[in-house]
Amino acid sequence: MTIFGAIFLASCGNSGEYYEKTPEQVTQAIKRAHLPTHVLGSQIKRSRVSQPAPGTVVTTLLGEGGREMMHFVTTVTPDGTGSRVATEIAIPEGVKERLDEAVAKDPMANYAMNLMHVVAREHVVAAIEGRPFDMTLGNPKAEVAMQMNPEMRAQIEEANKAASDMAKQEQQMHFSQSYGNDWGDSGSSTGDGWGD
């Protein structure tokens, strides 16, 4: 599915979860959110955020050399005093063919793809709710284990914070090397495609 197809599908009707926040608040929160790329495996090196339309935010996962590997396409539509938010995954052509081959050969590739849907949803929900990304991805067994052992939770949170901080530094370093320091932090409020 192309990125434009995902945008079209996500924008049809009143689909998605409802949030008592304006579309502008929702899109700004998603654009500012940091995606913890360290949980995505070695193929994903960093992410980029763009806003191709007023109600659409695209978080692009980038591989080696800036190759686009996957897009989290989030469509935000007004609904009364709040917003409806729907997130789809779009995979660029070329990458999609290789992914289809991998899924046909290895059931774990299909599991990994299903997990990406969970990651995309958690990234968006955490941003909108203003909370950290849940590294357990809502896994009930992990939650129970951490409730039973608060030290484990603290150690996992500390390790994830360190890994996330390192991923942020790597992304900022790449941005600085590519575009120089006179642009400031990599963020956008104008929807011009620049972002974390």
- Weakly predicted, low-confidence segments: 1-12, 183-196
Average per-residue pLDDT, rounded, comes to 81
Question: What is the helix content?
Answer: 40-55%
CATH architecture label of the domain at 3-135: 2-Layer Sandwich
CATH class annotation of the domain at 3-135: Alpha Beta
Number of strands: 5
The biggest beta sheet reads: 5 strands, antiparallel
Overall radius of gyration: 17 Å
Fill in the CATH topology of the domain at 3-135: Alpha-D-Glucose-1,6-Bisphosphate, Chain A, domain 4
The assigned structural class equals alpha+beta
Strand content: 15-25%
Q: Please report the number of helical segments.
A: 6
Overall body shape: globular
The multimeric state of the shown protein is: single chain
Widest beta sheet: strand line-up: 1-5-4-3-2
Distance between the termini: 24 Å
- The ordered H/E elements are HEHEEEEHHHH
